[in-house]
Amino acid sequence: MGAAFLSSWPWDNLGAYKYVLYAPLVGKAVAGRAWERASPDHWLLLLLVLFGVRALTYQLWSSFRNMPFAPPPPRRIVRDGVDFDQIDKEWNWCSVLCVTLDFCRDNFLILQVHMAAAAFYAFPSLRHLPPWDARGLAVAALLHVVATEPLFYVAHRAFHRGHLFSCYHSLHHSVKVPQPFTAGLATPLEHLVLGALMAGGGGGAAAAGGSVGLAFAYVLGFDHLRAMGHCNVEVFPGGLFQALPVLRYLIYTPTYHTIHHTKREANFCLFMPLFDLIGGTLDAQSWEAQRKTSAGVDEVPEFVFLAHVVDVMQSLHVPFVLRTFASTPFSVQLFLLPMWPFAFLVMLMMWAWSKPFVISCYRLRARLHQMWAVPRYGFHYFLPFAKDGINKQIELAILRADKMGVKVVSLAALNKNEALNGGGTLFVNKHPGLRVRVVHGNTLTAGGVILNEIPEGTTEVFMTGATSKLGRAIALYLCRKKVRVMMMTLSTERFQKIQREAAPEHQQYLVQVTKYRSAQHCKTWIVGKWLSPREQRWAPPGTHFHQFVVPPILGFRRDCTYGKLAAMQLPKDVQGLGACEYSLERGVVHACHAGGVVHFLEGYTHHEVGAIDVDRIDVVWEAALRHGLRPV
């Protein structure tokens, strides 16, 4: 049985080429010099600008909704996160281009811009509207109340019955967590009806003294209210409706419309609950629910992964900037380049004024996990004068987590740098009464590099960064397995200190080397320090570079292979995860993140800071596998 009539978009199969549908309008505007006010095609420019602003409206509401800055906003209605499935469904991805821009999935805007253009051609007088005429304002408001609202109410109730619901409106209700973009998740038939209702109010106003300003105000007001109703954040204070009870029937709230999404048989109105009251479909608990939501209580996460920004481009890879882009592994895209100056300005502002904030969240075994970010970028960590400021920000995040009742804070990448804070020991020693456990996660990182990546039967490895925290643990572990470890270091003192930690019978497997040429016959390189192309040339063909260096080295050798940073797949029962962790695939997190998760799930009561306990590598690795985390 085929799909129902007008239940799918006819240009879905075009992918990114669907934007060719704008070409006739753009071409006509260019040919007619529409940017000139005296041009007969000036209306086309205004129309295209209007629909561009409409797209931006939903993007801005999405950014607002996805800004869970610490402390978390207490007005979230549905507390669950938005997962990858919902993002895919709302944006119906079809190409690489479409997944890069959050406001590019504009099927309903493509439809309605052509509906509007057809109206302009059918009624030429619309092309000559004045910039502003206040006479149409009252008519537009009246028509909205007496026509648009009741007709939408009737149509909406019809779409909740039988064939119309199963073949059309069920798509809109298939999402778990309402989002501003959910407002556009509907079939062509529904958007035709909605477009006709919008045109009714605007057309009547135009006949009674319409204007360009009124058209913009009405359409954008319509979009703002639709996006607000689906934003899943209560924006109205509860006291407002107690002080002015009549407002309860004149304007709906995000809580009010979310009840419609959960109960489905109540709260059908467009924007005015008055019509639910008249139709007998107003949920009696709507305003009490709104009051409780607006009062709000912070939900405390039990686990926090404390990350930092990598660079200016990567700062755009967050849900509150571009949600769809953040749901894919990060890579530099051309569309990011025009946004770079703004992102650079934000970086300077964050450096000067910002504090640690929440980026994203998910649930694991019904427990809330959050990712926070220190407002510092990768290059800051290599500025000598920035060290104290970075540690102050990390300390602030740890103390905030401790006050909130968070159980585990896991430090990411450069936040646990040995030279910066001793792998977290600075904070534990300074605040011995911490209830929150501070974890660097490097025990699992070492396990990920050793147990998963290095093939069985390996007898010799070459390692840079060999005297670092991770390098030391890897070397001591491998020598126990009788694997010869060539430790690249110029410091004999640091090498001998590590060698003395090994059992006497294993010390012979640790060998100090001071030149890269020493590894010219070794095909297993473990990289903990940046390698230049010249240094990589010493590796023989067929070498595999295992990495724990941040940032990872660049792959210059085509005859060699390059591993990524140690990472693990989160358990299958993770919920509400909708953002990728930097360049990792969906559902994959860095090993230090996974190490913190294991620390929390196991209920360990100790801090994991400073030197890695080599004896615990196997223990933590087995615990990770037992809890459903899997190596990538």
Keywords:
membrane, elongated, Rossmann fold, NADP, 3 domains, alpha/beta, 11% strand, 5-stranded mixed sheet, NAD(P)-bd_dom_sf, endoplasmic reticulum, single chain, 632 residues, lyase, 6-stranded parallel sheet, 23 helices
User: How many strands appear in the DSSP assignment?
Assistant: 14
Task: Provide the residue-averaged pLDDT.
Answer: 90
Poorly predicted residue ranges: 93-104
Estimate percent helicity: 40-55%
Total of helices: 23
Strand share of the residues?
5-15%
Structural class: alpha/beta
Shape: elongated
Largest sheet: 6 strands, parallel
Please state the CA-atom Rg, rounded to the nearest Å: 29 Å
Can you tell me the number of structural domains? 3
Distance between the termini: 41 Å
Detailed description of the structure:
- The structure is a single chain.
- The protein is of the alpha/beta class and 632 residues long.
- It has three domains: 12-233, no CATH class; 303-439 and 569-631, no CATH class; 453-565, Rossmann fold, CATH 3.40.50.
- It is built from 23 helices and 14 strands.
- It has helices at 23-31, 42-65, 84-91, 107-122, 135-158, 162-167, 188-207, 212-229, 238-243, 254-263, 274-279, 286-295, 323-326, 340-353, 387-404, 418-421, 425-430, 442-453, 469-480, 492-501, 533-536, 591-602, 617-626; strands spanning 303-309, 357-364, 367-377, 408-411, 437-439, 460-464, 484-488, 510-513, 524-527, 544-547, 561-565, 567-569, 588-590, 630-631.
- Strands 8-7-6-9-10-11 form a six-stranded parallel beta sheet, covered by helices on one side. A five-stranded mixed beta sheet has the order 2-3-1-4-5. A three-stranded antiparallel beta sheet has the order 13-12-14.
- α2 runs parallel beside α8, α4 runs parallel beside α7 (188-207) and α18 packs across α22.
- The chain is elongated and about 95 Å long.
- 43% of the residues are buried.
- Residues 93-104 have low confidence and may be disordered.
